[in-house]
Amino acid sequence: MTGRSPPDTRAAYRRFVPILTRWGDNDVYGHVNNVVYYAFFDTAVNQVLIEEGALDIAHSPVIGLVVETGCRYFRPIAFPERVTAGIRVAHRGTSSVRYEVGLFREDDDTAAAQGHFVHVYVDRATQRPAPLPDVLRAVLEPLLV
């Protein structure tokens, strides 16, 4: 026993986003390359923010910059598997948010991988920290754990 905590189940997450794997996601070892997992995390969170009107990638005056990220891998994912990203918010501060994402293969109930990233929200023009906009706070509220 390594002392490593087991993967989360879908019940630990608040919102789900389907993601399609692509042929080019697989590496020479026949599974999705580790760097692609980070793209899945970013895609899932930003898709929710865009869909809910909390992010306009070209015009929002306040944007999130990634300042920390990490991932734990439990089972490989490979093209052409369907992936579902579960999203939750572990911390919402004045100008920062810790997003946690579980990646689920096909209909599995336990995560194949779990990751997190921290966004510090900044004024687009000055790149200085800025308070979370009200619309973003409202979108994050149901995702808080």
**How many strands in all?**
5
Radius of gyration over all CA atoms, rounded: 16 Å
Q: What about the largest sheet?
A: 5 strands, antiparallel
| Order of adjacent strands in the largest pleated sheet | 1-3-4-5-2
Distance between the termini: 28 Å
Please tally the helical runs, counting DSSP H or I stretches of 4 or more residues: 2
Report mean pLDDT, rounded to a whole number: 96
What percentage of the residues does DSSP assign to strands (E)?
A: 25-35%
Derived structural class? alpha+beta
**What string gives the helices and strands in order?**
EHEEEEH
Which overall shape is indicated by the principal axes computed on the Cα atoms?
globular
Q: Helix share of residues?
A: 10-25%
Any low-confidence stretches, pLDDT <50, length ≥5? Answer: none
Give the key terms:
145 residues; alpha+beta; five-stranded antiparallel beta sheet
Describe this structure in words.
Strand 4 and strand 5 form a beta hairpin. The longest helix has 18 residues. The chain has a five-stranded antiparallel sheet with strand order 1-3-4-5-2, covered by helices on one side. By secondary structure, it is an alpha+beta fold. Helices cover 17% and strands 34% of the residues. The protein has two helices and five strands, in the order βαββββα.
